[in-house]
Every structure is written in structure tokens, then in C-alpha cells.
Amino acid sequence: MKKQNRFKIVAASIMLLGGMVFLVVAMTRSTSMRHFTPALLVADGSSADKQRVQVDGLIAAGSSKWDAANFVLTFAIQDRETDATVNVLYKDQLKPDNFTDGGSVFVEGEYVASQNLVVATKLMTKCASKYDGAESAVPTDETSYNSSE
Amino acid sequence: MTAEIGQAAIFLSVLSCLWAIAFLSVGLRMRNPNAIQSGRNAVLATFILISISTGALIYGFLTDDFSMRYVVEVSSAAQPLFYKITALWGRMSGSLLFWLWILTVVGAIVVWQGRQRNEETHDTLADHALIPIVVVQLFFTILVTGLIEGIYNPLARFPNGQVAADGQGMNPLLQTPLMAIHPPTLYVGWISLTVPFAFAVGALTSGRVGSEWILRTRRWTLFSWIILTLGIALGGNWAYKELGWGGYWAWDPVENASFMPWLLGTAYLHSVMIQEKRNMLKLWNILLITLAFQFTLLGTFITRSGIITSVHAFAQSDIGPYFLGFILASTGGVIGLVIYRWKRLKSANQLESLLSRESAFVLNNWLLVGLTLIILWGTLWPVISEALNGEKSSVPESFFNKVVIIPGILLLFLTGAGPIISWRKITTNNFRRLFAFPLLMGLAGGALTWGLLELIGDTLPQSLVLCSFAVAFLVDDALTWGFRALMDFPLYSVLCSFAAVFVCVAIFAEFYRGARLRAKRQETSFFNGLNLLIQRNKRRYGGYIIHIGIVILYIGIMGSKGYFQLESRSMTFGESMEVGKYQLTMRDSFQKDYANYRRTAVVFDVAKDGKQIGSMEPARHFYYRVGQGDQDTVESAIRHFGLNDLYVAIGNIPPNFKAGGFVNVQAYHNPLIRVVWIGIAVMVLGGIVAIAEKSDRSRDP
Predict the structure, then answer these.
(1) Alpha-carbon gap, residue B218 to B513, rounded angstroms
(2) Sequence-separated (6 or more) residues with CB below 8 Å from residue B471
(3) Which residues between 416 and 475 in chain B have a beta carbon less than 8 angstroms from any beta carbon of chain A?
(4) What is the average per-residue pLDDT within B67-80?
(5) Which residues lie across from B599 on neighbouring strands?
(6) How many helices (H) and strands (E) does chain B have?
(7) Contacting residues for B268 by C-beta, under 8 A, at least 6 apart
């Protein structure tokens, strides 16, 4: 009687654990998206075609266009080290705070290799804190993010 | 001068911590009451010293001392007084000092509580528990000394006597009362978890591994749980009101970091009951509270180390390795102690049946710990994926939503089944008497929801869905098919309603039966009986109230996450848009100047089914004087309609607005979102009822 009970308990535990692990692995596989820098994405674009990706870089100077009438933001995201850029289209979403030329930006969306374009669903800006005047040499230990989804 | 005094106090408290650790351990070892007393006094001294440093920093804010680096970073001359004080936890070094200060308050309270008890019983458990508390204090003290690379002393001045003209000011997003109290609330919740953890360690070092350490810290744990619940809710509420994206929870790493200790704390609150009643799970409880405590530190590690990108305004710093090191070292220490006390930690009893209250508790623990690990997995996936296949990846919000839902609904079911299932083994009598009716009502509730959703018609025809679900298992791509079918079929809503009704009926029946019995016995009214019932066992019935709160919360989540509507449009002056049953017409705009910002708002006329019912004014705020240049933030407008919200956020308002310029508008209809806040309020209320029960007695036989 007791042994049988223990067997039942162990079996139930294994089922529960197995179910949870299965769920997590399956969901991770189906939703995971790769991180890219613009340079990597341009170089290896075909492997990411039609996939959801995350790209991290800078807002290329002079590239951003805010079309209020159509509720569309377009800009290019530039690699931090090279000249590589990837185009970004962000539609029907409010432009996040701190969206300025040269600022850090992080986008998430589907990549279309043929147009070198990320159709973003999520956009985060990150803006380094700056000092005014004499203390500009003082290093800061924090930067801030703003997000909009 | 005050800053220097504050710095000196921090350095002195390194000494007082070391003093406390040395005298407490030697005193306990040698059974020398004088040495123990000296150790306790050192804990009080640390509290006084850190209070002085914290006071010195606040003084710096109040006097606008812009020779202090931290003051310049988070405050400015024009900042309102209230936010000058809350600037204390505006950034990392100040937060660490503030964290440390709360921890020293906690240490002083433990000394005080121990002293009261000590006079009667010469008990040393609290003194054993003081040592781990002081070790954690020491860790934080060393972090804020400024001697560690990457973290500066919050009281430090700029080198070479530099003085800034003005401070940089706090991020305007944080200048709201909600955000001012959200971080300290979470801190207090996290830090209170240190006490049960410390008593667990104290139980191991003293060898008294029975239930005493649990009973004596029960109120601390509950306090922590209540405060964390509040803190997390405040964060969600702030995000909802301030960030302009219409939601309150996005599975951001920082949110997860606050949620994981809560889940573990909840698991612990349940598993200790098994130890009290059945003398089981001794080892598990010690490990669980250790895990919960470590997760409060892990949260800091995840959000501050820069390994994860987060929405929150925290930055990469070099603090990560220290936290990780401390987490590993202290966990190692606990494991060592557990091995040392291995024989005493064996359980006296074992699970007798799969269907028993014990099993329900164990399942609850498995699910809560499992959820924590799943959330940790998702949060750390960027790190894990890089280690696994060399490519950094991350999972989106939808991963969490999909993964937590099944364990979540199981947990919901347990909040009703747990309280009514019998100990040891379920009996037919128990099932018939307590389960049958709630289950039937639950089924009816589920069916009703299904029917209603069909009526509203936002799902596919059911026959089609059921067929596709059956076929799903026969074809190759079974998994995606299956999930797609699940997404279309309102399975989760139906299950959630079933469980919600079941739980409510089960728990209300418990209250009803108990109250009627009491009323009969005392020959008084039903409501008096109900009152007596709760008074007699506040812990148990407080817990049941929390369970009802959870049901309410789930219903709110189901409505607001599952059935919200979003409309995005570009609009010009005079145009209208629709969201749900509501029509929004852009009627006017205006500007108004405030002390440190300018408000530009658009006025919408709101109509429901064509009938005018008022107006809403979403706005943008332009803050004049902040470090990041002129900052423009969204101020959404929220209007309540019963339990539902209409939520409007706008983009920039062009200068030519009245001449036909476009404004971008996002309007949300969030059904049942107010139920979320009500549910949390009920949970907190239940917690307050439960905490009213005296700490070291367990009422149930």
C-alpha cells in the first residue's frame, strides 16, 4: 500500500516536471529571437530573413523621419563600430521619449532581408545622462531607458 | 562637514559589524552573556551610525550641496522638497545606502524583540539569527564605503573641491508620488525576508531546527509578503498611469526580479504550515527561505549588472560580480550548515496520499517554485542562449504569457481546493460534502463564460476549433497547431472562470459553515458568528481572504490582458475615432505652465454609443530643467467606466495643430482592469487580518 503510494507520487511529480520542462523548451524555441548588431545583421541577413530579431545600435544622424499623418516613424539604426545601417519602420506606435540623433536605440521586430528593414513592434531608447558645464568630465554611473511598446 | 561625518560613520560601521559578528559568535560559543550583549549593542551601534550617514546625505539634498557627486546626479535646486528626499534612492549608491539603513533598522528591531524575550527565557535563537543579518549588513556597508571599484560612496564630494552650479535633477518620469514610494516599498519587502532567512540560519547554527524559528518569524514573512504585494502593485500602477502604453505588466527583467521573491515567499508561507501541522518538509523550508532571500539579491544582480537590457533606468555597473559572489558564498554556507545538521532535518512524516491537503500544499510549492524557475529562465535566456549556442537571444513578453498560464490556472484551482481537501487522505465524505457543490458551480461558471464569449462572438465557431484541436495531434506540426487552436478557443478564459467560481464557492462555503456553527453555539447572529470565526483564527481566515483576492485579481488579468482593445490613429482637429463602444472627438488643445514643466493637452469629447458623456485630456509634459536636455513625456488620460478603463495617450502636438496638423493617438479599452487593483487590495487586506494573529502561536491543533 505504502509502496504503491510512493510510486504514484513519484510518477505524478515526474509528469508535472516533464510537462513544465516541455512547455518551457517548446515556448523558448518558438519565441526566442536573436540579438544582432546592425553590422552582423547586414552581413548575415539571409539567415535572419522573416525572423523576429532584436537590434541594438545608434540612431543614424539625419535618418529619422516622423510621418505624423500616417503614424509612421522610419529611421536607420547604425552600428556602434562600423558604418553598417539597418532600416527601421515603426508604425502605429507613439514615438518614444528621448528619441534623438545619435542616441542609443534597441528595436525588436521582423527582419525583411531584401529591404534590409526591421518592421519594429517594440522600440526602446536609451539616453546617456549628461552633465552641463564644468562637471562634464565627471563620469556617470547610470544611463536611462525609456520604452514604448 | 556633514558629508565627511557621514562617510566616517560608514567606515565606523564596518568596524561595528565586525565587532558584532565576533562577539556574537564567540559569546554564543562560550555561553558568555556579556560578550553576547556586547554583540547586540554593536548591532544597535551600526543602526545609529548608518542613520547618521543617511541623515548626512539627506542634509546634503536639503541644503543643495552641489559639491557632493550624488546630490548633483539626482537632485537640483528647483526640485520640490519631497523629491529631494526621495532622491535618496534615485540612483544606485544612494539606494544601496538606503537598503543598508533599512537593514540596520531590521537588525535593531530583532535585537529589541530578542531582548524582550530574552529576559524571560534566556533564549539565544535571536542572537544566532543576528549573525547572518550582520553579515548581510557588512556586505552592503563595504559596498557603500566607496572602496569597491565601480560604486562610489554616496557621500563623496567631487575631487579638487569642484562645485556644480546646479544638480542634474531626477528623471521627470520618476517625479510622481507613486514612483517615490514604489522603490522603498519593494526594498522594505525584500529586506524583511532577511529575517526569516537569518532565523533559518540561526536554527541551523544553534541546532534547534524544529518549528520555532518559523513561528517566531511568521509575522516578518507575512509583513514582507504584504509589502511586496503592495510594492509590485504600485509599480504596475505607476507603469499604467505614466508610461503611456496602456498596460501594467510586461515581464520586464526588473518586474520579474520583484516578482520572483514574491512567488518564493508565497510558497514558503504555505510550506511552513505543513511543518507546523505535520512536522514534514523541514529541510525544504530552510532551502526555500534561503532561495527567497537569495532571489532578493539576485534581482539586484540581474538589473544592475548590465547582463540584461531592461526598460528600467538602471545602468550597467561593476556591482554584479560582488552580488553574485555574495549569493554563491552565502548559499554555499547554508548548504554546508544543512549537511552539518542533516540528521536533525529528517521528516517525521511522509505523504500518505496524492489526494490530500499535504499534497495540495506540495503541489502549490512545486508550481510556485516552478514558475519562479521558468521566469528566471526567460529572464536569463540572453545569458543562457549565449552560453548554449554562442548567439545571444531573448524571449518576448508573449513567452512569459504563454508559459505561466497553465501553472497559473492550476494554482488558482488550488487556492480553492487546498482549503477544503482533508488532511492525510481525501475521503468520499469529504469530497461529497465540500467539493461537489463548488465543482458544479464552477462548471456552470465556465459554461456561462463560454456561452457569453460565443454571444459576443470574438472567437471562431467552436466545432471548427475542436476539430482542429483533434486533428492537431495527427499531423506533423502538432505543437504549433495545438497551440494555435488553444489560442483561438477561449479555453483559458473558460478554465479561469471555472476555477474562479469553484474557489469562491468553496471558500465562501467555508466561511458560511464556520460562521453558522459559531452563531449557533454562541446563540448570536450570523454576522457576529462570522466575526468570531475570523477573530478566533485570523491566520487561517486571513489566508482565505487573500485567496478570494487572488480570484479577483485573476479575473482582472483575464479581462485586461485577454480582451483589451487598442486603436491607433493619426487625427486632426475635429476628427473622431472609435474604440470599442466609445467615440473620441478631438475638440481643443491648450497649454499651461507649471513650476518645472509645460503641459500641452488635447481635449477629446467622449461619447458612448453616440451619447456624450464627458471629455478626456491626454497631454505631453515638457520638463525645462533636467540633465537629459528638455524632456518630453506622455501624460495619458484615464477614465473609468465601472470596472473598465478608457485610456488615451498622444504623441507630439504640432504647432499647426488647429490648422490641420496631425496628432498621433493611441486609445485603449481595458476591460476589468480596475478589478486587478481591487483584487490586490483584498489580498493586502487578507494579509493584514492574518498578520494580526500573535506571532509564536499556532491556533490549529
Answers:
(1) 27
(2) B481
(3) none
(4) 88
(5) B592, B621
(6) 22, 11
(7) B196, B221, B285, B288, B289, B292
ipTM value greater than 0.85: no
pTM of the predicted structure, to 2 decimals = 0.89
Asked if B653 has any chain A CB less than 8 Å from its own CB, the reply is: no
- Length of chain A, in residues: 149
Tell which of B395, B426, B479, B633 to mutate to test the A interface (max A CBs under 10 Å).
B395
What is the pLDDT at residue A1? 46
Chains A and B form CB pairs within 8 A to the count of: 173
Q: Where are the domains of chain A?
A: 1-32, 33-148
Residue B382 sits at the chain A interface (C-beta within 8 Å): yes
What's the CA gap between B51 and B10, in Å, rounded? 10
Tell me the C-alpha distance between B105 and B200, whole Å.
20
B660 in contact with chain A, both atoms CB, cutoff 8 A: no
Q: Is A63 within 8 Å of chain B by CB?
A: no
Q: Which of B353, B403, B480 sits opposite A5 (nearest CB)?
A: B353
Distance of alpha carbon B148 from alpha carbon B153, whole angstroms: 9
| Span B114-151, pLDDT tens digits | 887 766 667 789 999 999 999 999 999 999 998 887 77
Which domains, from first to last, does chain B contain? 1-174 (1.20.120), 176-345 (no CATH), 397-536 (no CATH), 565-670 (no CATH)
A84-104, pLDDT tens digit by residue? Answer: 999 999 999 888 877 888 888
CB contact (8 A) between residue A94 and residue B650 = yes
Domain A33-148 fold is OB fold (Dihydrolipoamide Acetyltransferase, E2P) (2.40.50)
Hey, what amino acid is at B190?
A: W
pLDDT digits (tens, 9 = 90+) for B643-655: 999 999 998 888 8
A148 vs B245, B378, B652: nearest CB = B245
Please state, in angstroms and rounded to a whole number, the distance separating the CA atoms of residues B66 and B80: 16
Q: Is B651 on the interface with A (CB under 8 A)?
A: yes
Tell which B residues from 334 to 373 touch A, by Cβ distance under 8 Å.
351-354, 359, 363, 366, 370
- The 8-class DSSP code of residue B173 comes to G
Q: How far apart are CA B78 and CA B585, in angstroms?
A: 37
